[in-house]
């Protein structure tokens, strides 16, 4: 009887040892080669003004706390997008807001009071009314003593149509900033008119409800929401060690906080290879994911990434980060 128990324990021990060895080998980046190409660089809102992140909340007017301007660009405008592309951006993130006449304009805030000389919400104004506003009106670096962009940014709020037309080959990450299901339906109506080749260059992310509505209409579009991100990360945590990826993890986008990334099975190279095979784009964001617009904006930030990291990087300072990769 003791011999049988000993044999059973021995087989069980060997089983777990072999299983642990399999998990290690199957998830070690030591055995996962990556290409030598530079990381994909995502320029958040193009190239815009920087601001202090200290004590910032969702309703903080960031235009009132900008740093001394280093360049003449305002976020989410055609000049700022063009500057980001010229600086080396592979992908540009833009924010969309609905208008009264069922259009989309490129603008970060759902209210106008912070940045412009208008008041209220974008959806209460027509496209022409919004474009007549001065979107540089509220920017100040010295607590309201001077306004360096006031009077210089009238007619600079573009429509989504104008941006996609001006940059016909540029990949964009489109941000729906509400939880309104109707915005997802409106976006689907708009995107359905675009050729398949253009849709392949676009990704849409945002609130759970609009993204769910959008995916229902355009299942082949690359999308992401908080709900899909959480679901996919939980699934990967549970079964990713096997190398198997379910359908929900294919042809999507994952924004991975840098402090979460090291805990993912196979991080970095094995994980990135798996996501490449699943046609899922990986973008690393700074911190633990709770920060406001947190990006890799300095050379010191980049040094925290694995030396051979070749996934995507979220940055607010494409002008500072692209040169580090000779872009």
Topology:
Elements: H1 2-27, E1 40-44, H2 78-87, E2 91-98, E3 104-106, H3 127-131, H4 160-166, E4 172-176, H5 181-191, H6 196-199, E5 202-206, H7 208-217, E6 222-225, H8 226-239, E7 253-257, H9 269-277, E8 281-285, H10 299-302, E9 312-315, H11 318-321
Helix pairs in contact: 5-7
Secondary structure class reads: alpha/beta
Order of helices and strands: HEHEEHHEHHEHEHEHEHEH
- Helix percentage range: 25-40%
Q: What does the radius of gyration come to? A: 23 Å
Total strand segments: 9
Overall mean confidence score, pLDDT: 93
CATH architecture: Alpha-Beta Barrel
Number of domains: 1
Sheet with most strands: 9 strands, mixed
Tell me the distance between the termini. 70 Å
The assembly state of the depicted protein chains is single chain
**Helix tally?**
11
Principal-axes shape call? globular
CATH level-4 homologous superfamily = Phosphatidylinositol (PI) phosphodiesterase
Q: Would you give the CATH topology?
A: TIM Barrel
Q: Mind telling me the CATH class?
A: Alpha Beta
Proportion of residues in β-strands: 5-15%
Uncertain spans:
none
InterPro entries: GP_PDE_dom, PLC-like_Pdiesterase_TIM-brl
Organism: Viridibacillus arvi
GO molecular function: phosphoric diester hydrolase activity
Domain GP-PDE: 59-325
Keyword list:
9 strands; TIM Barrel; alpha/beta; 327 residues
Polypeptide structure, described:
The chain has 327 residues and is of the alpha/beta class. It has a single domain, classed as Phosphatidylinositol (PI) phosphodiesterase (TIM Barrel). The protein is built from eleven helices and nine strands. The protein has helices at residues 2-27, 78-87, 127-131, 160-166, 181-191, 196-199, 208-217, 226-239, 269-277, 299-302, 318-321; strands at residues 40-44, 91-98, 104-106, 172-176, 202-206, 222-225, 253-257, 281-285, 312-315. Strands 1, 2, 3, 4, 5, 6, 7, 8 and 9 form a nine-stranded mixed beta sheet that branches. Helix 5 packs parallel to helix 7 (208-217). It is globular and about 80 Å long. The N and C termini lie far apart (70 Å).
